Amino acid sequence: MKISASLYSSKKRPLEPLIEELDQCHIDLFHIDCNDDPSVFDDIKEIRQISSTPIDIHIISDRPEQYFSQIESMDLEYVTFQYENLSSKLVFPNAPDTQFGLAITSDTPIEVFSEYADDCDFILIMTTTPGQSGGKFRKDNFKKIRKFRNAFPGKEIHVDGGVNHEVGFILRMLGVHSVVSGSYLVNHQSIGAALLHLKSSSIHSDYQIKDFMIDLADAPVLLEGEYVMRDMIQSIEDHSLGFTMIAGQDGSLKGLSSNADLRRGLLKNIDDLNQLDVHDILNESPVTINQNATISELLDLIQHERFLISFLPVIGEQNKLTGALTFINLIRSES
User: Fold this and answer.
1) CA nearest to 231, candidates 216, 276, 223
2) Domains in the chain: boundaries
3) What's this model's pTM, rounded to 2 decimal places?
4) What is the rounded CA–CA span in Å between residue 35 and residue 40?
5) Phi and psi angles of residue 81, each rounded to the nearest 5 degrees, phi first
6) pLDDT class for 206, splitting at 50, 70, 90?
7) N or C: which end of the chain has fewer CB within 10 A?
8) Quick check: do 2-200 and 214-333 share a fold?
9) Backbone φ/ψ region at 177: left (φ over 0), alpha (ψ -120 to 50), beta
């Protein structure tokens, strides 16, 4: 996951030493908020003289067309337009080397992206007030990110607002491509330490698993007594997560089947596959995580298991199945 440093979140430091320190820490991008202020392009010219780090500009304007000539001439790497400020359908500037995005606030539905899907490479989900620094990340955006990922699988997800080390860890799990970090990063007493925390595992946490898990309605689940082995294998294939869960008629977790369970079942019956039975590919005692557990407890669980965990059923009271976690995107973010 890339980190884009919001340069204007630092009110005390001059631009040049801030950029130099961020570059020394190998920052991925510089984020610039343009709140209808043409002077930001003068800052971008100054940045270009100091650094070759890619620039990520967020334009918040009722008349974004006034900036098209600068966008086209300056070869900016990322340009985002704020959806709520647009008075009509935006025709994008002619800048073939620029990746364009659409920014939306937390209260705007992701469906508005459909109108711009052909022109945009990514969405920027604003999780606090656009153009302001220091706000708190809204939990409902976790589900919004999952929803967008399912609706527009070929598009990148960028996030801006309230991103600290804990939120950053969750966003990596959700497959977010880039996050904008403002106050947490540029006002930290050690930019290097803050950047390391954003890209590493969280230690302290206030969020619970239920805040960002895959909801049961979207998870691979089969009901006990209502499936045959073919259904189990097909569920693993259809969801592309490497597993499917089995729920009892009362909603309790009865087990799961994974690619590894299927492989073990085949090996057990390799001499006569007609003997292969549902129970040969069913793990009836899988490792689980409670929906009220914190990220710290999740990490502790993962670290103390003797095998690599790539997914987990999530349970509530009385072993009731409530969702699932998968670590596919987290693993990809480390590569």
Assistant:
1) 223
2) 2-200, 214-333
3) 0.77
4) 9
5) -110, 135
6) confident
7) C
8) no
9) alpha
Q: Which two tokens stand for residue 277?
A: 């039975």
Across 176-220, the runs of DSSP E, i.e. the strands, are 178-181, 214-215
- 141-166 exposure pattern, b = at least 16 Cβ within 10 A, e = fewer: bbbbbbebbeebeebbbbbbbbbbbb
Fold of 214-333: CBS-domain (3.10.580)
Contact 59, 79 (CB under 8 A): yes
**Mean pLDDT for the stretch of residues 109-118:** 96
How many residues can be counted in the chain?
335
229-235 contact pairs (CB < 8 A, 24+): 229/276, 229/277, 229/278, 229/281, 232/257, 232/278, 232/281, 232/282, 233/262, 233/281
State the CB neighbour count (10 A cutoff) for residue 20.
11
Instruction: Give the count of alpha carbons within 13 A of 229, CB side only.
Output: 14
Distance, in Å, from the CA atom of 227 to the CA atom of 85, rounded to the nearest integer, reads 50
**Predicted local distance difference test score (pLDDT) of residue 200:** 61
Q: Which of 280, 291, 289 is nearest to 258 (CA)?
A: 280
Helical residues (DSSP H) of the chain, grouped into ranges: 15-24, 40-50, 68-74, 140-151, 165-173, 183-186, 191-198, 229-239, 259-268, 295-304, 328-333
The rounded percent of the chain whose pLDDT value lies above 90 is 58
Handedness of CA 266, 268, 272, 274 (dihedral sign): negative
Is residue 294 over pLDDT 70? yes
Q: Which residues contact 197 (CB under 8 A, 6 or more apart)?
A: 164, 165, 168
User: Environment class of residue 332 by beta-carbon count within 10 Å: exposed (0-12), middle (13-18) or buried (19+)?
Assistant: exposed
Pairwise CA distance, residues 113 & 331, whole Å: 28
CA distances 308 to 114, 171, 302, 331, Å, are: 38, 21, 8, 11
Dihedral angle over CA of 123, 129, 135, 137, nearest 10:
-40
Question: According to CATH, what is the number of the domain 2-200?
Answer: 3.20.20.70
How far apart CA 79 and CA 29 sit, in angstroms, is 12
